[in-house]
Design brief:
Layout (H helix, E strand, L loop, with lengths): L26 H7 L2 H18 L5 H8 L4 H17 L1 H11 L1 H21 L3 H35 L5 H27 L3 H22 L15 H6 L2 H18 L4 H10 L5 H26 L2 H22 L6 H33 L5 H28 L6 H13 L15
Length: 432
């Protein structure tokens, strides 16, 4: 297979030597070294998540109370939102490879504006589902465009000798989590007025993003090739190592989706309301903002990409196990929230290892000129897993089972995914 990095000299071994390590520069120095395009894309990720997380953490409660959906249907709608986003990333990736970044990002922003406005006024189940599908498909357009270009620019940044690409991707994650920190706090304030107000505020954020990209995004990005030939999907489906990475990453995404399904249910049980939920989201975001770059440097000195993902998946599994162990005690109040805080912390630590490693691995496995397709496929396979897993989780939470069972089942999923991770080959990049 001709991977994107087949033309790039390997910069690390599994245990990097002193000469191959990235300099320990601070975040500000790293930021100043980035190109204007990378800075724009990182700011875009920040704004995306502010608008998105002003609404999504409160969607399950809105569907269950204001709309009156059953638990399994709430889980299905949340999974459908993830599938229409993650599952259709492959479509966005194909469009990016053929048409370029700018038009796909602009179309995605326009659809997200329409979807949030529709969701704010949707009351019937069919209308909610329609709005959720539009919101998800919007991200299926702009996210592969932004993520694939960040990955491509990060490889070039590494090739120029600035350091491992994971540092750029980690900064991208920090921007996203900063948005995920501000978004729920903004949404919690706006919910005092109403869910519709939160949705319209989210739409307004994307109006600003659309205007910014119309002004600043170049029409042609140097070095970005547009692929006209067909057959990329067939080659992708034969790429067993890439598909194995997709499945392992999908179990992480299913675990992360429990922040919106299993966690709100547990917070309501322990605290009597979902008021502490926004603070738990804030805790996760603050951890990423403060610790993502140091953890990425630490992992880069000690772990290759496979070991980094393994450690991250096991941390995520242990987070579910903490709640499972504490659940039979039936604690409430502040004490009852401690296991959920432990879950959020461990899930976030695992995320900080899994996400940069998985995104850094994709360029090594992608066919030349098809990074958008492979970036989209990573999320599409994950979306299929989340669609099935979220509906099953919603049903599992509704069943009259011992209180620890759903959390034990959820713990087993990322733990078992370690066996799915492909073995590294010598030609794969080692920039963990």
């Amino acid at each position: 297979m001709t991977g994107l990095m087949s033309r790039v000299p390997t910069l690390r071994t599994a245990r990097p030597t002193e000469d191959s390590r990235a300099p320990k520069e601070g975040t500000w120095r790293l930021w100043r070294e980035l190109s204007p395009l990378l800075r724009l894309l990182i700011w875009t990720q920040l704004a995306f998540n502010i608008g998105f997380f002003a609404v999504l953490p409160f969607l399950a409660e809105h569907l269950g109370t204001a709309i009156g959906m059953a638990g399994w249907l709430v889980g299905f709608v949340l999974g459908l939102r993830t599938f229409s986003q993650q599952g259709l990333f492959v479509v966005g990736g194909l469009l990016v490879d053929r048409g370029g970044v700018r038009p796909v990002v602009l179309a995605g922003c326009a659809l997200r504006i329409a979807g949030f406005a529709w969701l704010g006024y949707a009351e019937a189940t069919w209308a909610v589902i329609g709005a959720v599908l539009v919101i998800g498909f919007a991200a299926a357009l702009f996210s592969p465009a932004v993520e694939s270009e960040v990955a491509r620019q990060a490889v070039a940044w590494e090739e120029e000798g600035h350091g491992p690409r994971t540092r750029v991707l980690a900064l991208f994650s920090v921007a996203g989590q900063a948005g995920a920190f501000v978004g729920p706090l903004l949404g919690a304030l706006l919910l005092a007025v109403g869910f519709r107000t939160a949705c319209l505020a989210g739409a307004a954020v994307f109006v600003c993003v659309l205007a910014g990209h119309l002004w600043l995004m170049p029409r042609h990005i140097p070095g970005r090739l547009r692929v006209r030939e067909r057959g990329g999907a067939r080659l992708l489906l034969r790429n067993r190592r890439f598909l194995a990475l997709c499945c392992a990453y999908g179990t992480y995404l299913l675990a992360y989706n429990q922040l919106y399904l299993a966690l709100p249910d547990e917070v309501r049980r322990a605290a009597g309301s979902q008021a502490p939920l926004s603070w738990l989201f804030a805790l996760s975001s603050v951890l990423v903002v403060l610790a993502q770059l140091p953890i990425t440097r630490w992992a880069g000195d000690r772990l290759d990409l496979r070991r980094s993902m393994t450690a991250g998946l096991l941390l995520i599994a242990s987070g579910f196990a903490v709640v499972a162990a504490a659940r039979p005690a039936g604690w409430t109040g502040t004490t009852g929230l401690l296991p959920t805080a432990g879950f959020v912390i461990l899930l976030t630590l695992g995320q900080m290892l899994v996400v940069p490693a998985a995104r850094s691995w994709v360029p090594d496995l992608a066919e030349e000129g098809r990074l958008g397709l492979y970036t989209g496929a990573l999320s599409s396979v994950s979306g299929l897993i989340v669609l099935a897993g979220s509906a099953a989780t919603g049903l599992l939470l509704d069943l009259d089972l011992p209180s620890c069972v759903p959390w034990l089942v959820l713990a087993a999923v990322p733990a078992s995914a370690v066996a799915l991770l492909p073995r590294r080959r010598e030609q794969d990049g080692k920039a963990a």
